[in-house]
């Protein structure tokens, strides 16, 4: 035993370099797994969900819009947007731009010299996890990427891919980073005590409001596509939906930034609400349309996941059940009934109903969090004194009002900034494809098609720009 140290691998002898004393291996492992789960929601989850839900001629274009966004966010994130979202305060709703790729990001946030705040500008302390800041950069990147992919669901089947390529970095820079800093990064809504456990506002309400706005400026699909838009592969869509659902384990379970009891509660509440919402939506379909709908079940699943997100680790299990029933009912009503009555909802062509599944469900989840947030659970996650929902006392009514104000800010900012970004892009790049490209679909946009059905894999000649083009695969 005296010579036991001689068998220790050399790589582990210098623990100050390889395994520093401050590193919490369990928390770091859970956070990396959570980040991977969130990332898989975007790629491949939403990529194949979109590919399956749209008309056959748009399968490839829809998948590519999601794939491009997932990749394009990364350089923006590490070069400037992460620090805008979680760095030094520039103004009360925005952080200073900066790099997130230096050696400093191999040490934990708590050891960085005044990384978040300076000159005593913090009133509400931020959580300081004991693992490399690089882990947090990756985790938060996955959230940013998923947000803009969700937004894409509103403008599928007509937005110019070149306009989309310009839109993604601009929106992440000027819209997403504002919401993230204001609510999560120490901005004014964070200081005020607005609750958003895992992105009901920052991710889902933002994507829903921005997507609806983008759909207005880009314009509607061809009338023939609006009239008839059958999913080309529902089994593929179900696969994407399943990845999205299971990926939400990391989406909500990773936001205590530790493998603790609150993360366990957040995971359980997430699945309670999702399952309850799916079943509730399906029941409404059966009651009113006499048949259960697979697409409806997917929509109900998503609204449940979105609704629980603002309060996943802040509410008790019974509240998650109530939130599931509510999220399977109110968005169902706005999508299946109200959208047929309100002129604005009929005029604006939101391809996959992102307004209902994310904006409505996100606002609903934030409001219900303001009602049901338990004081003891709030104290485990938030550093705001006496945080609690209205259900637990008169002072909780203030929290409910704060939640509504927070939602109003996210909606207003995204409507205005998304409009400005698209109007600027429109000056140099058309926002939508030409009429001819809209009739052709994937082949016009990419020179490729999702399904090669003619012969032994080759595709038939198609008319594009007035001439025949043989795009057969060699």
Automatic annotation (TrEMBL):
Subcellular location: Cell membrane
Superkingdom per UniProt: Eukaryota
A GO CC term attached to the entry: plasma membrane
Ammonium transporter AmtB-like domain sequence ranges: 29-451
Keyword Membrane belongs to the record: yes
PROSITE patterns: AMMONIUM_TRANSP
Coiled-coil zones: none
Cited Pfam families: Ammonium_transp
InterPro entries xrefs: Ammonium/urea_transptr, Ammonium_transpt, Ammonium_transpt_CS, NH4_transpt_AmtB-like_dom, RhesusRHD
TM annotation in the entry: 29-51, 63-82, 138-157, 164-189, 201-219, 231-248, 268-287, 294-312, 318-338, 359-384, 404-429
UniProt keyword annotations, A-Z: Ammonia transport, Membrane, Transmembrane, Transmembrane helix, Transport
Bilayer disposition of the protein: Multi-pass membrane protein
A Gene Ontology biological process term: ammonium transmembrane transport
Keyword check for Membrane: yes
PANTHER family per UniProt: AMMONIUM TRANSPORTER MEP2, TRANSPORTER 2, PUTATIVE-RELATED
Family: Belongs to the ammonia transporter channel (TC 1.A.11.2) family.
Protein name: Ammonium transporter
Species annotation: Cinchona calisaya
Lineage of origin: Eukaryota, Viridiplantae, Streptophyta, Embryophyta, Tracheophyta
């Amino acid at each position: 035993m005296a010579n036991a140290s001689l068998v220790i691998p050399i790589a582990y002898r210098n623990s100050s370099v390889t395994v520093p004393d401050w590193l919490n291996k369990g928390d770091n492992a859970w956070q990396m797994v959570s980040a991977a789960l969130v990332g898989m929601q975007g790629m491949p989850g939403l990529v194949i969900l979109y590919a399956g839900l749209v008309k056959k001629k748009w399968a490839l274009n829809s998948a590519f819009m999601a794939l491009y966004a997932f990749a394009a966010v990364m350089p923006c994130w590490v070069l400037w947007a992460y620090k805008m979202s979680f760095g030094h305060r520039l103004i009360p709703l925005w952080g200073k731009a900066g790099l997130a790729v230096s050696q400093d990001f191999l040490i934990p946030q708590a050891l960085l010299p005044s990384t978040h705040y300076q000159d005593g500008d913090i009133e509400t302390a931020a959580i300081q996890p004991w693992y490399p800041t690089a882990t947090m950069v990756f985790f938060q990147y996955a959230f940013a990427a998923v947000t803009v992919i969700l937004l894409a669901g509103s403008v599928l089947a007509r937005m110019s891919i070149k306009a989309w390529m310009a839109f993604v970095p601009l929106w992440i820079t000027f819209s997403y980073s504002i919401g993230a800093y204001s609510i999560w990064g120490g901005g004014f809504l964070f200081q005020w005590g607005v609750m958003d456990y895992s992105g009901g506002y920052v991710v889902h309400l933002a994507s829903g409001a921005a997507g609806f706005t983008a759909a207005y400026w880009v314009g509607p699909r061809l009338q023939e596509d609006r009239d008839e838009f059958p999913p080309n592969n529902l089994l593929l869509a179900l696969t994407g939906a399943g990845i999205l659902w299971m990926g939400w384990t990391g989406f909500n379970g990773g936001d205590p930034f530790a493998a603790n009891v609150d993360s366990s509660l957040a995971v359980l509440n997430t699945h309670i609400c999702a399952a309850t919402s799916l079943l509730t939506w399906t029941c409404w379909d059966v009651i009113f349309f006499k048949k259960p709908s697979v697409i409806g079940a997917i929509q109900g699943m998503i609204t449940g996941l979105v609704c629980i997100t603002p309060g996943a680790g802040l509410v008790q299990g019974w509240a998650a059940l109530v939130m599931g029933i509510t999220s399977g009912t109110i968005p169902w009503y706005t999508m299946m009934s109200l959208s047929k009555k309100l002129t604005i909802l009929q005029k604006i062509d939101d391809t996959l109903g992102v307004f209902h599944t994310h904006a409505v469900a996100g606002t609903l989840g934030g409001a219900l969090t303001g009602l049901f947030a338990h004081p003891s659970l709030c104290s485990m996650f938030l550093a705001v004194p006496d945080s609690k929902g209205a259900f637990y006392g008169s002072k909780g009514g203030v929290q409910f009002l704060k939640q509504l104000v927070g939602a109003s800010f996210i909606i207003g900012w995204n409507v205005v900034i998304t409009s400005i970004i698209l109007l600027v892009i429109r000056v140099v790049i058309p926002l939508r494809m030409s009429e001819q490209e809209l009739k052709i679909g994937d082949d016009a946009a990419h020179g490729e098609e999702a399904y090669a059905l003619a012969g032994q894999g080759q595709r038939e000649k198609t008319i594009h720009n007035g001439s025949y083009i043989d795009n057969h695969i060699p």
